[in-house]
Amino acid sequence: EKSFGMTSTQGGLCGSGFIGGFMLMAPLAGLFGHGRRGPVIIGVGLFLWTASVMTTCFAPNYPVLLASRIVAGVGEAAYSPLALPMIDDSASPNQKALFGGLFFATIFIGSAMGFGVQAPFSTWKHARWIFFVEGVAMVPFGAFAVVCRNRFNKGAAEIAEHTLLAAADGVSTVDEPAPPSARRQVAMLFSSPVYVSLMLGYCATIFTIGGLAFWAPSIMTSVLGVNKTTGGLALAVMTGASGVFGSLAGGVSLDVFKICLGGERRLLRSILVALVCSVTALPALIGMALLDQPVLWFSSAGISQFFMFMASYPANLGMMEAVPPQARGLSLGVATLLSHALGDLIPPVLIGMLVDRTHTLRPGMLILALWGIWPILLWSVAFCIARSRRSDHSCTGSLEFAQ
Protein backbone atom coordinates (compact mmCIF):
# COMPACT_ATOMS: atom_id res chain seq x y z
CA GLU A 1 0.00 0.00 0.00
CA LYS A 2 2.84 2.41 0.80
CA SER A 3 4.62 1.74 -2.50
CA PHE A 4 1.56 2.70 -4.56
CA GLY A 5 0.08 5.23 -2.14
CA MET A 6 -3.05 3.10 -1.78
CA THR A 7 -5.71 3.32 0.86
CA SER A 8 -6.86 0.13 2.58
CA THR A 9 -10.01 0.26 0.46
CA GLN A 10 -7.96 0.36 -2.74
CA GLY A 11 -5.85 -2.53 -1.49
CA GLY A 12 -8.97 -4.56 -0.76
CA LEU A 13 -10.32 -3.69 -4.21
CA CYS A 14 -7.35 -5.50 -5.77
CA GLY A 15 -8.48 -8.68 -4.02
CA SER A 16 -12.11 -8.10 -4.95
CA GLY A 17 -11.12 -7.41 -8.55
CA PHE A 18 -9.37 -10.76 -8.76
CA ILE A 19 -12.40 -12.58 -7.35
CA GLY A 20 -14.74 -10.65 -9.67
CA GLY A 21 -12.80 -11.58 -12.79
CA PHE A 22 -12.52 -15.16 -11.60
CA MET A 23 -16.18 -15.75 -10.76
CA LEU A 24 -17.57 -14.05 -13.87
CA MET A 25 -15.29 -15.81 -16.35
CA ALA A 26 -15.52 -19.33 -14.86
CA PRO A 27 -18.96 -20.16 -16.36
CA LEU A 28 -17.81 -19.01 -19.82
CA ALA A 29 -14.72 -21.21 -19.65
CA GLY A 30 -16.87 -24.15 -18.61
CA LEU A 31 -19.40 -23.41 -21.34
CA PHE A 32 -16.94 -23.47 -24.23
CA GLY A 33 -14.29 -25.87 -22.90
CA HIS A 34 -15.40 -29.05 -24.69
CA GLY A 35 -13.08 -31.71 -26.08
CA ARG A 36 -9.84 -30.38 -27.54
CA ARG A 37 -10.89 -26.81 -26.84
CA GLY A 38 -10.63 -27.39 -23.09
CA PRO A 39 -6.83 -27.72 -22.93
CA VAL A 40 -6.45 -24.82 -25.38
CA ILE A 41 -8.64 -22.60 -23.20
CA ILE A 42 -6.62 -23.64 -20.16
CA GLY A 43 -3.36 -22.92 -21.98
CA VAL A 44 -4.53 -19.49 -23.13
CA GLY A 45 -5.81 -18.76 -19.62
CA LEU A 46 -2.48 -19.72 -18.07
CA PHE A 47 -0.55 -17.56 -20.53
CA LEU A 48 -2.94 -14.69 -19.76
CA TRP A 49 -2.40 -15.29 -16.06
CA THR A 50 1.38 -15.31 -16.62
CA ALA A 51 1.25 -11.99 -18.45
CA SER A 52 -0.91 -10.46 -15.72
CA VAL A 53 1.33 -11.50 -12.81
CA MET A 54 4.39 -10.22 -14.66
CA THR A 55 2.53 -6.96 -15.22
CA THR A 56 1.83 -6.92 -11.48
CA CYS A 57 5.56 -7.20 -10.88
CA PHE A 58 6.35 -4.16 -13.05
CA ALA A 59 3.13 -2.16 -12.47
CA PRO A 60 4.03 1.56 -12.46
CA ASN A 61 0.86 2.76 -10.72
CA TYR A 62 -2.32 1.64 -8.99
CA PRO A 63 -4.65 1.48 -12.05
CA VAL A 64 -2.25 -0.89 -13.82
CA LEU A 65 -1.93 -2.97 -10.65
CA LEU A 66 -5.72 -3.24 -10.29
CA ALA A 67 -6.18 -4.15 -13.96
CA SER A 68 -3.50 -6.84 -13.73
CA ARG A 69 -5.23 -8.44 -10.73
CA ILE A 70 -8.57 -8.51 -12.57
CA VAL A 71 -6.94 -10.11 -15.62
CA ALA A 72 -5.22 -12.65 -13.34
CA GLY A 73 -8.66 -13.69 -12.08
CA VAL A 74 -9.90 -14.05 -15.66
CA GLY A 75 -6.89 -16.21 -16.59
CA GLU A 76 -7.24 -18.43 -13.55
CA ALA A 77 -10.95 -18.89 -14.26
CA ALA A 78 -10.07 -20.61 -17.54
CA TYR A 79 -8.39 -23.32 -15.49
CA SER A 80 -10.76 -23.76 -12.57
CA PRO A 81 -13.88 -25.43 -14.10
CA LEU A 82 -12.00 -27.50 -16.70
CA ALA A 83 -9.08 -29.00 -14.77
CA LEU A 84 -11.07 -31.48 -12.67
CA PRO A 85 -12.97 -33.01 -15.64
CA MET A 86 -9.68 -33.37 -17.53
CA ILE A 87 -7.99 -35.02 -14.56
CA ASP A 88 -10.96 -37.34 -14.17
CA ASP A 89 -10.82 -38.31 -17.86
CA SER A 90 -7.06 -38.91 -17.84
CA ALA A 91 -6.68 -40.90 -14.61
CA SER A 92 -7.13 -44.65 -14.49
CA PRO A 93 -10.27 -45.91 -12.70
CA ASN A 94 -8.27 -46.79 -9.58
CA GLN A 95 -6.57 -43.37 -9.44
CA LYS A 96 -9.44 -40.97 -10.16
CA ALA A 97 -10.37 -40.38 -6.52
CA LEU A 98 -6.75 -39.98 -5.39
CA PHE A 99 -5.87 -37.54 -8.18
CA GLY A 100 -9.04 -35.53 -7.55
CA GLY A 101 -8.15 -35.25 -3.87
CA LEU A 102 -4.60 -34.22 -4.78
CA PHE A 103 -5.95 -31.52 -7.08
CA PHE A 104 -7.92 -29.91 -4.26
CA ALA A 105 -5.03 -30.38 -1.83
CA THR A 106 -2.69 -28.40 -4.10
CA ILE A 107 -4.97 -25.38 -3.71
CA PHE A 108 -4.12 -25.22 -0.02
CA ILE A 109 -0.47 -26.11 -0.60
CA GLY A 110 -0.25 -23.12 -2.93
CA SER A 111 -1.86 -20.84 -0.35
CA ALA A 112 0.55 -22.03 2.34
CA MET A 113 3.52 -21.52 0.00
CA GLY A 114 2.29 -17.99 -0.70
CA PHE A 115 2.29 -17.10 2.99
CA GLY A 116 5.70 -18.69 3.49
CA VAL A 117 7.43 -17.16 0.47
CA GLN A 118 6.28 -13.60 1.12
CA ALA A 119 7.12 -13.66 4.83
CA PRO A 120 10.85 -12.73 4.45
CA PHE A 121 10.06 -9.66 2.32
CA SER A 122 9.10 -6.48 4.13
CA THR A 123 8.84 -4.16 1.10
CA TRP A 124 7.14 -4.34 -2.30
CA LYS A 125 10.45 -3.53 -4.01
CA HIS A 126 11.69 -7.04 -3.29
CA ALA A 127 8.40 -8.94 -2.84
CA ARG A 128 7.21 -8.05 -6.36
CA TRP A 129 9.74 -10.47 -7.87
CA ILE A 130 7.69 -13.33 -6.45
CA PHE A 131 5.10 -12.56 -9.12
CA PHE A 132 7.74 -12.62 -11.85
CA VAL A 133 9.14 -15.99 -10.76
CA GLU A 134 5.74 -17.67 -10.52
CA GLY A 135 4.79 -16.24 -13.91
CA VAL A 136 7.86 -17.77 -15.55
CA ALA A 137 7.24 -21.06 -13.74
CA MET A 138 3.72 -21.28 -15.21
CA VAL A 139 4.81 -21.04 -18.88
CA PRO A 140 5.67 -24.76 -19.30
CA PHE A 141 2.30 -25.79 -17.89
CA GLY A 142 0.43 -23.57 -20.32
CA ALA A 143 2.49 -24.92 -23.21
CA PHE A 144 1.87 -28.51 -22.09
CA ALA A 145 -1.90 -27.95 -22.02
CA VAL A 146 -1.89 -26.74 -25.63
CA VAL A 147 0.66 -29.16 -27.11
CA CYS A 148 -0.81 -32.25 -25.42
CA ARG A 149 -4.46 -31.29 -25.87
CA ASN A 150 -5.33 -34.56 -27.67
CA ARG A 151 -4.57 -36.53 -24.52
CA PHE A 152 -7.44 -34.86 -22.71
CA ASN A 153 -10.18 -35.24 -25.32
CA LYS A 154 -13.15 -37.26 -24.13
CA GLY A 155 -14.23 -39.21 -27.19
CA ALA A 156 -17.66 -40.30 -28.30
CA ALA A 157 -17.19 -43.83 -26.95
CA GLU A 158 -16.36 -42.52 -23.48
CA ILE A 159 -19.33 -40.17 -23.57
CA ALA A 160 -21.59 -43.06 -24.54
CA GLU A 161 -20.21 -45.11 -21.64
CA HIS A 162 -20.78 -42.21 -19.24
CA THR A 163 -24.32 -41.88 -20.57
CA LEU A 164 -25.11 -45.50 -19.69
CA LEU A 165 -23.61 -45.16 -16.22
CA ALA A 166 -25.41 -41.86 -15.62
CA ALA A 167 -28.71 -43.43 -16.64
CA ALA A 168 -28.22 -45.99 -13.88
CA ASP A 169 -27.97 -43.08 -11.44
CA GLY A 170 -31.13 -41.45 -12.78
CA VAL A 171 -29.30 -38.56 -14.47
CA SER A 172 -30.67 -36.93 -17.61
CA THR A 173 -28.49 -37.69 -20.63
CA VAL A 174 -28.12 -36.74 -24.26
CA ASP A 175 -27.52 -38.97 -27.25
CA GLU A 176 -25.06 -36.95 -29.30
CA PRO A 177 -21.44 -36.34 -28.28
CA ALA A 178 -21.33 -32.99 -30.11
CA PRO A 179 -21.28 -29.93 -27.83
CA PRO A 180 -24.85 -28.67 -27.34
CA SER A 181 -25.82 -25.02 -27.45
CA ALA A 182 -25.25 -22.74 -24.48
CA ARG A 183 -28.97 -22.59 -23.81
CA ARG A 184 -29.25 -26.37 -23.77
CA GLN A 185 -26.25 -26.76 -21.48
CA VAL A 186 -27.80 -24.37 -18.98
CA ALA A 187 -31.07 -26.30 -19.25
CA MET A 188 -29.17 -29.53 -18.55
CA LEU A 189 -27.92 -28.11 -15.27
CA PHE A 190 -31.05 -26.56 -13.87
CA SER A 191 -33.35 -29.37 -15.00
CA SER A 192 -31.38 -31.74 -12.77
CA PRO A 193 -32.65 -31.55 -9.16
CA VAL A 194 -29.62 -33.56 -8.06
CA TYR A 195 -27.22 -30.97 -9.49
CA VAL A 196 -29.19 -28.02 -8.11
CA SER A 197 -29.30 -29.56 -4.63
CA LEU A 198 -25.59 -30.37 -4.67
CA MET A 199 -24.67 -26.92 -5.96
CA LEU A 200 -26.76 -25.04 -3.39
CA GLY A 201 -25.36 -27.22 -0.62
CA TYR A 202 -21.86 -26.40 -1.83
CA CYS A 203 -22.71 -22.68 -1.82
CA ALA A 204 -23.90 -23.02 1.78
CA THR A 205 -20.62 -24.70 2.73
CA ILE A 206 -18.61 -21.89 1.11
CA PHE A 207 -20.80 -19.39 2.98
CA THR A 208 -19.63 -20.85 6.29
CA ILE A 209 -16.00 -21.27 5.20
CA GLY A 210 -15.83 -17.72 3.83
CA GLY A 211 -17.40 -16.20 6.92
CA LEU A 212 -15.06 -18.03 9.27
CA ALA A 213 -12.01 -17.13 7.17
CA PHE A 214 -12.91 -13.44 7.37
CA TRP A 215 -13.99 -13.23 11.02
CA ALA A 216 -11.78 -15.85 12.71
CA PRO A 217 -8.92 -13.37 13.38
CA SER A 218 -11.37 -11.02 15.12
CA ILE A 219 -12.71 -13.89 17.22
CA MET A 220 -9.20 -14.78 18.35
CA THR A 221 -8.38 -11.28 19.54
CA SER A 222 -11.72 -9.99 20.85
CA VAL A 223 -13.32 -13.20 22.17
CA LEU A 224 -10.45 -15.56 22.95
CA GLY A 225 -7.90 -12.91 23.92
CA VAL A 226 -5.18 -14.51 21.79
CA ASN A 227 -2.25 -12.44 20.55
CA LYS A 228 -2.82 -11.41 16.93
CA THR A 229 0.55 -12.63 15.63
CA THR A 230 0.48 -15.94 17.49
CA GLY A 231 -3.16 -16.58 16.69
CA GLY A 232 -2.71 -15.67 13.03
CA LEU A 233 0.19 -18.09 12.64
CA ALA A 234 -1.74 -20.86 14.39
CA LEU A 235 -4.78 -20.19 12.22
CA ALA A 236 -2.71 -20.26 9.02
CA VAL A 237 -1.05 -23.57 9.93
CA MET A 238 -4.35 -25.11 11.01
CA THR A 239 -6.19 -23.99 7.86
CA GLY A 240 -3.40 -25.17 5.57
CA ALA A 241 -3.12 -28.56 7.25
CA SER A 242 -6.90 -29.03 7.36
CA GLY A 243 -7.18 -28.12 3.69
CA VAL A 244 -4.41 -30.44 2.50
CA PHE A 245 -5.25 -33.48 4.59
CA GLY A 246 -9.00 -32.92 4.36
CA SER A 247 -8.88 -32.78 0.55
CA LEU A 248 -6.76 -35.93 0.38
CA ALA A 249 -9.12 -37.67 2.80
CA GLY A 250 -12.04 -36.70 0.56
CA GLY A 251 -10.45 -38.56 -2.35
CA VAL A 252 -9.44 -41.59 -0.31
CA SER A 253 -12.87 -41.84 1.31
CA LEU A 254 -14.52 -42.23 -2.09
CA ASP A 255 -12.51 -45.41 -2.62
CA VAL A 256 -13.30 -46.62 0.90
CA PHE A 257 -17.02 -46.08 0.33
CA LYS A 258 -16.72 -47.92 -2.98
CA ILE A 259 -15.49 -51.01 -1.14
CA CYS A 260 -18.04 -50.71 1.67
CA LEU A 261 -21.01 -50.12 -0.63
CA GLY A 262 -20.10 -52.88 -3.04
CA GLY A 263 -19.62 -50.90 -6.24
CA GLU A 264 -22.28 -48.18 -5.93
CA ARG A 265 -22.06 -45.54 -8.64
CA ARG A 266 -19.79 -42.53 -8.19
CA LEU A 267 -22.70 -40.09 -7.99
CA LEU A 268 -24.18 -41.81 -4.94
CA ARG A 269 -20.78 -42.29 -3.33
CA SER A 270 -19.77 -38.67 -3.80
CA ILE A 271 -23.03 -37.37 -2.34
CA LEU A 272 -22.82 -39.76 0.60
CA VAL A 273 -19.22 -38.78 1.44
CA ALA A 274 -20.06 -35.07 1.28
CA LEU A 275 -23.15 -35.64 3.42
CA VAL A 276 -21.25 -37.57 6.11
CA CYS A 277 -18.60 -34.83 6.20
CA SER A 278 -21.18 -32.07 6.64
CA VAL A 279 -22.93 -33.97 9.45
CA THR A 280 -19.60 -34.52 11.23
CA ALA A 281 -18.56 -30.87 10.85
CA LEU A 282 -21.75 -29.40 12.34
CA PRO A 283 -21.08 -30.11 16.07
CA ALA A 284 -17.57 -28.67 15.74
CA LEU A 285 -18.96 -25.56 14.04
CA ILE A 286 -21.39 -25.03 16.91
CA GLY A 287 -18.48 -25.50 19.32
CA MET A 288 -16.59 -22.70 17.55
CA ALA A 289 -19.56 -20.39 18.07
CA LEU A 290 -19.99 -21.16 21.78
CA LEU A 291 -16.54 -21.94 23.21
CA ASP A 292 -14.32 -19.33 24.89
CA GLN A 293 -11.32 -21.49 25.79
CA PRO A 294 -8.59 -21.09 23.10
CA VAL A 295 -7.46 -24.74 23.00
CA LEU A 296 -11.02 -26.05 22.69
CA TRP A 297 -11.88 -23.37 20.13
CA PHE A 298 -8.88 -24.20 17.93
CA SER A 299 -9.67 -27.91 18.23
CA SER A 300 -13.25 -27.30 17.09
CA ALA A 301 -12.03 -25.04 14.29
CA GLY A 302 -9.57 -27.66 13.05
CA ILE A 303 -12.16 -30.46 13.08
CA SER A 304 -14.83 -28.39 11.34
CA GLN A 305 -12.44 -27.14 8.66
CA PHE A 306 -11.06 -30.62 8.04
CA PHE A 307 -14.48 -32.09 7.31
CA MET A 308 -15.72 -29.11 5.28
CA PHE A 309 -12.61 -29.28 3.10
CA MET A 310 -12.98 -33.05 2.95
CA ALA A 311 -16.43 -32.55 1.42
CA SER A 312 -15.16 -30.22 -1.34
CA TYR A 313 -13.91 -32.78 -3.85
CA PRO A 314 -16.83 -35.23 -3.40
CA ALA A 315 -19.31 -32.36 -3.78
CA ASN A 316 -17.63 -31.14 -6.98
CA LEU A 317 -17.42 -34.68 -8.32
CA GLY A 318 -21.10 -35.15 -7.58
CA MET A 319 -21.98 -32.00 -9.53
CA MET A 320 -19.97 -33.32 -12.49
CA GLU A 321 -21.64 -36.72 -12.32
CA ALA A 322 -25.14 -35.25 -11.98
CA VAL A 323 -25.07 -33.77 -15.50
CA PRO A 324 -24.24 -35.08 -18.99
CA PRO A 325 -20.53 -35.10 -19.94
CA GLN A 326 -20.92 -32.13 -22.27
CA ALA A 327 -22.07 -29.93 -19.38
CA ARG A 328 -19.46 -30.93 -16.79
CA GLY A 329 -17.30 -27.85 -17.26
CA LEU A 330 -20.28 -25.52 -17.10
CA SER A 331 -21.56 -27.30 -13.99
CA LEU A 332 -18.36 -26.40 -12.13
CA GLY A 333 -18.20 -22.93 -13.69
CA VAL A 334 -21.72 -22.09 -12.51
CA ALA A 335 -20.90 -23.54 -9.09
CA THR A 336 -17.82 -21.29 -8.95
CA LEU A 337 -19.89 -18.21 -9.79
CA LEU A 338 -22.72 -18.93 -7.38
CA SER A 339 -20.51 -20.18 -4.55
CA HIS A 340 -18.92 -16.73 -4.49
CA ALA A 341 -22.12 -14.77 -5.16
CA LEU A 342 -24.18 -16.72 -2.60
CA GLY A 343 -21.25 -17.85 -0.47
CA ASP A 344 -18.16 -15.96 0.63
CA LEU A 345 -19.22 -12.50 -0.64
CA ILE A 346 -22.12 -12.26 1.84
CA PRO A 347 -20.83 -13.24 5.34
CA PRO A 348 -18.29 -10.40 5.82
CA VAL A 349 -21.01 -7.77 5.35
CA LEU A 350 -23.82 -9.69 7.04
CA ILE A 351 -21.83 -10.55 10.16
CA GLY A 352 -20.43 -7.02 10.24
CA MET A 353 -23.96 -5.60 10.36
CA LEU A 354 -24.82 -7.94 13.24
CA VAL A 355 -21.70 -6.92 15.14
CA ASP A 356 -22.62 -3.25 14.73
CA ARG A 357 -26.07 -3.94 16.17
CA THR A 358 -25.18 -6.39 18.96
CA HIS A 359 -21.58 -5.29 19.69
CA THR A 360 -20.53 -8.94 19.90
CA LEU A 361 -19.41 -11.62 17.44
CA ARG A 362 -21.34 -14.43 19.11
CA PRO A 363 -24.66 -14.15 17.16
CA GLY A 364 -22.81 -13.93 13.86
CA MET A 365 -20.69 -16.97 14.64
CA LEU A 366 -23.80 -18.92 15.62
CA ILE A 367 -25.41 -18.05 12.28
CA LEU A 368 -22.32 -19.30 10.43
CA ALA A 369 -22.36 -22.52 12.45
CA LEU A 370 -26.07 -23.21 11.99
CA TRP A 371 -25.75 -22.43 8.29
CA GLY A 372 -24.01 -25.80 8.19
CA ILE A 373 -27.46 -27.39 8.45
CA TRP A 374 -28.23 -26.37 4.86
CA PRO A 375 -25.65 -28.67 3.21
CA ILE A 376 -26.98 -31.57 5.29
CA LEU A 377 -30.55 -30.94 4.15
CA LEU A 378 -29.73 -30.23 0.51
CA TRP A 379 -27.29 -33.11 0.09
CA SER A 380 -29.77 -35.45 1.77
CA VAL A 381 -32.34 -34.43 -0.84
CA ALA A 382 -29.79 -35.00 -3.62
CA PHE A 383 -28.93 -38.46 -2.29
CA CYS A 384 -32.57 -39.51 -1.97
CA ILE A 385 -33.42 -38.34 -5.49
CA ALA A 386 -30.36 -39.98 -7.05
CA ARG A 387 -30.93 -43.25 -5.19
CA SER A 388 -34.65 -43.40 -5.98
CA ARG A 389 -34.05 -42.74 -9.66
CA ARG A 390 -31.40 -45.42 -9.80
CA SER A 391 -33.76 -47.88 -8.07
CA ASP A 392 -36.56 -47.00 -10.48
CA HIS A 393 -34.23 -47.53 -13.43
CA SER A 394 -33.07 -50.89 -12.05
CA CYS A 395 -36.65 -52.08 -11.51
CA THR A 396 -37.69 -50.95 -14.97
CA GLY A 397 -34.70 -52.66 -16.53
CA SER A 398 -35.43 -55.91 -14.70
CA LEU A 399 -39.06 -55.83 -15.78
CA GLU A 400 -38.16 -55.21 -19.42
CA PHE A 401 -35.63 -58.04 -19.31
CA ALA A 402 -38.20 -60.41 -17.82
CA GLN A 403 -40.71 -59.51 -20.49
TrEMBL record:
It is a multi-pass membrane protein. Signal peptide: none annotated. It holds the Pfam family MFS_1. The chain crosses the membrane at residues 12-32, 38-59, 97-117, 129-148, 194-215, 235-257, 269-291, 297-317, 329-354, 366-386. This is Major facilitator superfamily (MFS) profile domain-containing protein. One of its GO terms (molecular function) is transmembrane transporter activity. Keywords: Membrane, Transmembrane, Transmembrane helix, Transport. Belongs to the major facilitator superfamily. Spinster (TC 2.A.1.49) family. PANTHER family: PROTEIN SPINSTER, SPINSTER. One of its GO terms (cellular component) is membrane. It is found in: Membrane. The lineage of its organism: Eukaryota, Sar, Alveolata, Dinophyceae, Noctilucales. Coiled coil: none annotated. Residues 1-390 form the Major facilitator superfamily (MFS) profile domain. The keyword Transmembrane helix applies. It comes from Noctiluca scintillans.
